[in-house]
Amino acid sequence: MKNISIIWLPILFYFCGIELVVLFTQPSLFLDLNFFGVRVLFLIIFLAFLFLKNKISSKIFYLAEGITIYALMTFLYKETAVLNTLIFPKVDGFLSHLDQKIFGFQPSVIFSETFDSWYFSELFYFGYFSYYLLPLATFLIIYLKIPQKIEQFSFILITSFLLYYFTFILIPAEGPQFYFPFPENTIEAKGIFGNMVKLIQKNGEVPTAAFPSSHVGISWIVIFWLYQNFKKSVKYFIPFVVLLMFSTVYIKAHYFVDVVAGFISAPIVFFLTFKFYKFLNHKLDVRFD
To answer: Do 256 and 99 contact (CB within 8 A), yes or no?
Structure first.
């Protein structure tokens, strides 16, 4: 087992869970080329890193592996849009109703209408865009300062994504940008960051993953991990994460209750993934060389 990175075990468990869901709900998906192709892609990447395990230094290996699998999460995210109605119907009506009951209006609609200047648009789009950079910046810090922790961070990050993705299948919600009718579901991009996020959404966004907000959850999980391992860096990241929380509602990616659920779920997911890492690390004696 020492030749297999521990990070692949939660991926295996996730795939097994998904296959069971598909088997009992829509077995025809097994014949879908996209569904099958994602599994082949992960297998190829796994075999490639298995081959490279003893060919390059552990420091570079775990960094490359962690970032590669982080990038591959995009495919599993898109897949939840197909899987998230196999068990339960979408709950957007309930979530939007909660927002209406709390505020008396829809925050994801009113927020961007009230603060519609170029400055606020770019500020909040930048906050949303920073989500994609946060894990990469953390990988860089770990590589430079505490390389022996790369595998642990990768495991916690990826396993957290997988837990959220499985939750999206059980609690299907598409978010304001897909649920509300035009023009309430749209917001104009007025600058560089706005157009960058719009481009990312055009190529990667699908009607899924609204509740809870994994953007908020993952970001706070990264903060928790940094606080535990490299505390002095946390103060530089928290402002971006707080801005991100507002941004997800501003650009209509999430309802307000999604953000709250993401924030509340983050310490729970972090605790579970960290304990799971320690359990597997102890049982399999997998360690950084």
So the answer is: yes
